[in-house]
């Protein structure tokens, strides 16, 4: 992939980020992510399909409830919305190609500023789609997935697809239609729904049953429209329990799976799992991965991490090697992702204000995932990890245990077996041993 520059260079002094190996001390080089390295029969590039999050990297300005922006983008001073959007896209593709990232992801309003006129918004987005087509053609970068932002505009204060006002729902549908058209035109491989305000702040004014039924109808309509347009990709739901709403209907993977099955959406939708959303739901990242994998729903990953001292979605770049190694054990045993990739839905910190900081963040995240995958594969191939787990459930592979698994035993049969066998032996789960095993292979 060659570096793709626009009319000006935005990240001056930074060239192509390359793999230099574990011995390198160059902070602007990969130490573990060798895209051509084959692990478990696939290259690292094919395993991960790493993607840049357009919104955090080129729209996140470092502002917070207590302070003004600290990331001052040069394109923000441009008044014309199209020229501003083109300058931002020039910078985006410069960064993406310098990082050698094969994919990117976007919300519609990330690409170009929206107003309140539906037709003008569609025209703006269509103009930028043509510009992005040429950028993708020149660089070879692909669109992993697109989505519509149905949570920032004031009209969506009570949700979009779950809004009590049908007129608001129709605006959300118009926006999704345009975002689907853009995704399809750019060869997007998937499409994501994140229901940031599809929930409630109080049950006192909420008809929860109607709202969830309307959400299902909305998703069916979007799916049917995209399929009519020839879209072959996968639709993803991204779970999150709360924030900005008090309770969101896509609470966690188990909740989403139940919803998809209840409303007949399970054949077209899978799950996009975000690390920080898992922790907000009171789960670990690995728990959510395992739930999705067990149901054949492990579609894609939004990679980040939270802060143990903060109770909100901090969207920090991933760097916990132990956590990601455990995740990669599930990832490999599940056969990888179904359609999606690893999108860095993460932002540099408010006080990280140098151009190089965005590079350091992505390099660290990509290296962490690569090293974790190599470690997980070694554990699966060389250690007793798989055998221990298999042996722990060996009592279900023969005799009465096997009969139970086959549905052949009654409750009376189980009682008789317990009487015959007496008190079971105490068998260790060896949790500390397995935790040490991961550290040994790291």
From TrEMBL:
Record key words, sorted: Carbohydrate metabolism, Cytoplasm, Isomerase, Magnesium, Metal-binding, Xylose metabolism
Gene Ontology MF term list: magnesium ion binding; xylose isomerase activity
Entry keyword annotation includes Zinc-finger = no
UniProt-annotated catalytic positions: 107, 110
Q: Which InterPro entries match?
A: Xyl_isomerase-like_sf, Xylose_isom_bac, Xylose_isomerase
Q: Where in the cell is it found?
A: Cytoplasm
Q: Which residues bind Mg(2+) 2?
A: 274, 277, 313, 315
The highest taxon in the source lineage is Bacteria
Say yes or no: keyword Nucleus present.
no
Q: Could you name the Gene Ontology cellular component terms for this entry?
A: cytoplasm
* Subunit and partners: Homotetramer.
Protein name, UniProt field: Xylose isomerase
Encoding gene (name): xylA
